[in-house]
Structure formats: structure tokens, C-alpha cells
Amino acid sequence: MQAPADRTRPEWVRLANEGALGPLLEESAEPFSLDGVLGRAQALTGLDDFGSDDFHEPLDLLLRDLEAHARLTALGRWQTYRYLLRLLRVRLQIRDYETRDPGVADERVEAPLFVVGAPRTGTSILHALLARDPAHRVPEGWELLMPVPPPSPDPSAFAADPRIPAAEAELRFFDQVTGTLDAIHVYGARLPKECLSAQSFAFRSQEFPARYHVPNYTAWLLGCDMAPAYDLHRRVLRILQRGFPRDRRWVLKSPAHLHSLPELLDAYPDARLAVTHRDPITVLGSVTSLIATLRGVHSDDVSYPAIGRYHADLYVHDLDRLVEHDTGGVFAPGRVHHSQYADFMTAPLDTVRALYEALGMELTDDAEDRMRTYLDARPKDKHGVHRYEFDDLGLDRAHESSRFGRYRTHFGVPAADHA
């Protein structure tokens, strides 16, 4: 069953998937195989040391699922091949850089702030606002896609880095194919990027189920040890901050952290958390629309009900665990702040002030002015209207609502603001 959203796409996409681009897509025509993609990445870089081989199992599972279940179009297969090779090239580059500059291992990522919460709960806009504070360092899209070598601390050189247009081309590809993604979520090389992109170098990342129907990989991912993903995440941050002053705090973000908060806190014991909340019934409709659109870049066979069911089960589990973490002492006092999406939409700067106060951070007048300016320049629906309906998911509203009762009651989450 295809997604009920508008499937109209640019004419060039149809032509590409019908074979009109011929030779341009031939490099990805061979079946995906572990030895094949590893060897190709090594040949492209002239490097051969991937470090630990703990990524072989998930990568092999992913490749098998891409062949057996993802139902990729010709263009989707081409883009996937390029994406996998980038991840493997960067993994080789990370290991090579660490070997050539062993001092990078001594870099300390101190007291980072993580924005977490289910997707579509305001994590992105909160992350973007926090990025306005000059005291913060928020990774941009190009930095997490291509972190080696470290960017220049000089602002002019940073802004002129040649990796920016390459990352922009990859990130803008999604909206160019769909023509509708920007109305849901805008991706760009100079925009804040979330942690999934760094964890993908370990091939333990929700970025893959977001893009593809890969059931065996996804089942493995939900039960795997995420420590290697957080280890690689920390190594990327160490590289990115190499040569920069130590007067800025990393501010990071990903909804996927909900699934692995103990592992996150093991990797970053002094981390602070900004947790966002919104009625899960609204979240399910919105996130399903987003994921269906992302998968539609790579496949013409996208099932709303399957995506909706997966996320319903995932977030019942993750939000119930969030309650258990909150009541079980997982979060250190003074290191977590909870906010409601409805409050943020009504009074965003009040929400930000409360966050700073709760976490013992200073919100300067300059930072607040920068946030206000950002909000004023970002009118609602600037990139189009995101339309979605819970009823498109084929789920029983009353039943699903009851499954989230414990979470809603514990955190005082108001009823759905949009269905």
C-alpha cells in the first residue's frame, strides 16, 4: 500500500527510475555485498584500516535487507550506493586521522547538552534556537557528514569549507526527489544536524530504518549494544573540536536517544538533557508522514500502516522506559529539564528560559535577542503546509491512546493538539 500523501514527483525522477539516465546509474547495478562495498571504499580512499570490525554484522544485515526487502528504485539504489560508500570512506578517514594525530584522543567533550524526545515534539526547533547562543556549538550538516579533517576555527575559512557544497548536494537530494519534504523537515549543509549521522558510521543508527524497509536489520538494531555507536559519536566530536577554543558547549540532538539513554549517559556521564513532550497520537501521524516521505525517495512501495505500527510499538516501549528512567534515578538531579510542545509553541522563549534556569546555564541578553530574531524570521509553514492524519495509519485511536496512558499521566502531557 502506498502512502496516501501526494506522490507527484518531478519528471526527471520518473525518467531516472525508468532507465533514461542509463550509464549514470550503472555503478550501483551490482548486488550489494559486504566485500564489495568495503573494497570499493578502500579503493576510493587508498586506506584499508576500518578499526574495529564490529560494524560488519549490522552492515551485512543491512545490505541483505536492501536486496531482499527495500524494493529500491533505480534512483534509490544509486543514491543508497553513494550513501553507503560515504559512510565507509569517512570511517576509514576517521581511523586514519586518529592514527596521524593521536592527541585527538585526549580531547574532552565536556557537559554536552542533548535535546531528546520523540520525533515531531519540537526537538528540531529547540535545537535550532539553542544554536543561536554564541556559547554553544551545534554541529552543522556538513560537519557530521564529512568530519575529517577538522574544520577551521576561523569563521571565514569555516564558512568556505569545500565540503559544504558536497554535503548540500547530498542533503538537498531528498526534497529534490519528493518535492514535498521541506514542508515536513528541511535538510541542509549549514543547518543543525542530529546525532544519527555520526552514529551511522558505526552502522548502528535509526537513520537506516528511516530511509528503508529493512526488517531484519531493524530488529537487530532494537536489541543491539549501542556502545559502539556512542563511541564513534564521541570520536567524531573530538575531531570536530580539534583546534577550537574550549569555551563553547556542544548542543546535540536526536529523538533516537530515547531508545538508548543509559548508553548515552555511560558515554557522556556529565551530559544534560532537554526532554520534549507531545501527545504520542499526534507524533505517530506526523512521524509516519516524515518516514514515508524519506522512504519514498528510495522506493515506490511505501506502506503507511507498517510504518505507523512500527513507530507505535517503538514509542510505547521508549516512552515507558523514559518514565522508568525518571522514577528510577537514572537522571542526575539538576541535569534534566522537561518541556511540553504546546507550551513551546505558545511561548518558546519562556520555555528556553526555564530550560537554562533548570540546568544552571546562563542565558545572556545577546543570546535571547538572537533567538528572538531567528523566530521572527521563521514564520509557520514557511516551506509549505505539512498535512497528516492519524487515521491514515490504520490504527485504532482509542487503543493506541490507552497504550501511552502511563507516559501521558507521568509527564502531564496534554491531549492531542492535532490529529
TrEMBL record:
The keyword Oxidoreductase does not apply. It is an enzyme of class 2 (transferase). The keyword Transferase applies. The lineage of its organism: Bacteria, Bacillati, Actinomycetota, Actinomycetes, Kitasatosporales. InterPro entries: P-loop_NTPase, Stf3_sulfotransferase. It comes from the Bacteria. Keywords: Transferase. Gene3D superfamilies: P-loop containing nucleotide triphosphate hydrolases (3.40.50.300). This is Sulfotransferase. One of its GO terms (molecular function) is transferase activity. Its EC number is 2.8.2.-.
